[in-house]
Amino acid sequence: MSNPPVFTWSDRFLLGHRTIDDTHREFVDCVDALLRARDAEIPAALDAFARHAEAHFAQEDAWLSAADFPTGGDCHIDEHAKVMASVREVQELVAKGEVEIARELAQALMDWFPGHADYMDSALATWLVKKSHDGRPLVLRRKEHL
Q: Averaged over 114-131, what is the pLDDT?
């Protein structure tokens, strides 16, 4: 595979909640590793992403399931479940030797993540910061040079 797509962390993904931001950096790194993996490395890279996603989504789902979380958490939880179902399907196909499908998943995750973070995770981060500090997240972003 020549010139694989690259998924790199950007401050535009920052949401102002340290745990979420750190987990999102790891998400980006795992997806990038999957995009860059050679065929023989795909199963391990996919398994690493799956482990990350399970822990990542479980943490967010626990916050979203809190009794005092405002409405809308179920939609967010459902989106996580759909991603994990896709990951499991791809793991089965990769186990049968269909490694290219893992790169397609990684590309889909790269396309999906910014919108998910902007619309769903930002609401979660805002709620968590309000709950813990009685304020809104403060996000300082470096200027991006294109």
A: 92
